[in-house]
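Morning!

As promised:
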Amino acid sequence: MILRLSIASLFARALTVGMTILAIALSVALFLGVEKVRTGAKASFADTISGTDLIVGARSGSVQLLLYSVFRIGNATNNVTWESYQDIAARPEVDWIVPISLGDSHRQFRVMGTTQAFFDHYKYRQGRSLAVADGAIMDDLFDTVIGADVAATLGYTVGDPIIVAHGLASFTEHKDQPFRVSGILGKTGTPVDRTVIVSMEAIEAIHVDWQNGAQIPGQSTPADVIRDMELTPVAITAALIGVQSPLQTFALQRAINNYPEEPLLAILPGVALQELWGIVGIAETALLAVSAMVVVTALIGMMATIFSSLNERRREMAIFRAMGARPLTILTMLILEAMLMAAIGALLGLALLYIGLMVAQPILDTTFGLWLPIEAPTLREVWVILAVVAAGAIVSMIPAIRAYRMSVADGMMVKT
Amino acid sequence: MADPVLQICDLAYQWSGRSAFSVAVADLTIAKGESVLLLGESGSGKSTLLSLICGTILPDTGTVSIAGTNISAMGGGARDRFRAEQIGVIFQQFNLLPFGSVADNILLPLRFAPKRRKRAGDAADAATNLCSALGLPAGTMDAKATALSVGQQQRVAVARALIGHPPLIIADEPTSALDADSQAAFLDLLFAQMASHDTSLLMVSHDPRLGERFDRVIRMEDVAQIERATA
């Protein structure tokens, strides 16, 4: 009966109580959302590359190399010459090697030049290989294979023409050498979905008439002429390497890092990822702390609401007292009320999270390649909700103790 | 003679607020089934006296006995329970929990008083019977307390005080919010219900015209010495 009366009392103050619950719900949704994005991002990043033992690029930072070679975030500061690439490829430890050439774009997507070996050796999510969903892997010089998101966003189908732009976010286009979509890859949840893949030779081909980053005025070599040209790359951006035996990984890494002809850097993707977490970890913790503070703020807001309601509820408490309720009962009622508000708020927050996930999932996936799975609440989330209810109870102790004192002092008489 | 329902002996109470204020009652006794009107102006210490009788405040010296039990000797929780068992309280107005139904309000004291609940038998039936005896329209039980008129609310308050037949009813100016006709009707209903269970009534008022309906009329100044320090 007390619980029912508490609920009735909450309903009677529907507006303020509703606002309080909404504030708690939003804060809990934010907190759980941050947590979801955090774990989702981690899982998604970790799933992006698998089976690659070393990544080689021009000497810079290991995190930077990982970011631009695998995640297409940021840019390479320098290239690796084709001679160095061939030197490394010829080493006995190397089982396979895939060159990558970046730097051009198509609309908002990056263009990556590579070889057939990329489709054979690039693995994601515990060893899965890329699969062509439609069409075939490029055959002609001006053929391209596009990722699932590229096709979905731009509405491309096999056979459509593509014009590649020079550089990123650039207005100068390689208009003279249009490409044709030969294949569309299946969805992977990795940056490959947002990549336009062409052959290494194609990257050279579209730059035939270019020098120092600009088109030579008036010069335009017809595509058929280019096809007959020798299109050996001058440089590559990075290379993915698989070694013969895992034991050789470190030896090869050391050899590449000490390569005398050119300053190079070889990294282990897993180690670089760990390093990346180390950097992101601080921001992650800060974000989590901020969202936790938002939850605390909402609970303090609830405390303020209860406080301000005390005066107008003096009469109510006097009636309870006159009917034989102990001051402790009044204290319990107020805490119960707060816990109800916190619980409803937390559950509503969880519901908001799921609604938010349903809305944001495709958007996050297409814009950031971040796939947040919609699953049943984890044990951690259940704990968060319980913690919010417990914190609500603790916070409400302060006004409840005041109500207790008031009801002891007032007894059943209220002088209004 | 059986134990009086209420007996106050040599009571003294000093209110320790900002304004020093003390009440002293040498002797006040109410017998079983007796109705007493306590007349006093506002500020004459009536509310303090009622709080002392109900045990929400404790006297510094002396005893307050309800149905033969000295409540001053009880612990706080036991005293609250005892109040719920033994005393029905009717306030001046705004007696009811606005968010509860009429039934919720009437049954509320039984929640804190298991013996009284037992005495009431089927509590919902008892409440319905009281409501009809008090002239409340059928179907009032499920209505929101605030949906009723002031006169109806006071009758619900009476039903709440009477349910489970506590030996003593304390009423603090229950008719002051009602007009003269409603006052008379209200008292008729109250007395009729109390007569059937030999219930005692202590009603506080400033209106001496009500006196003729009570067994006994006492004046606040006759039973209590009030002292006020003029600060």
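Chain B has one domain: 6-228.

Hope this helps with the figure draft.
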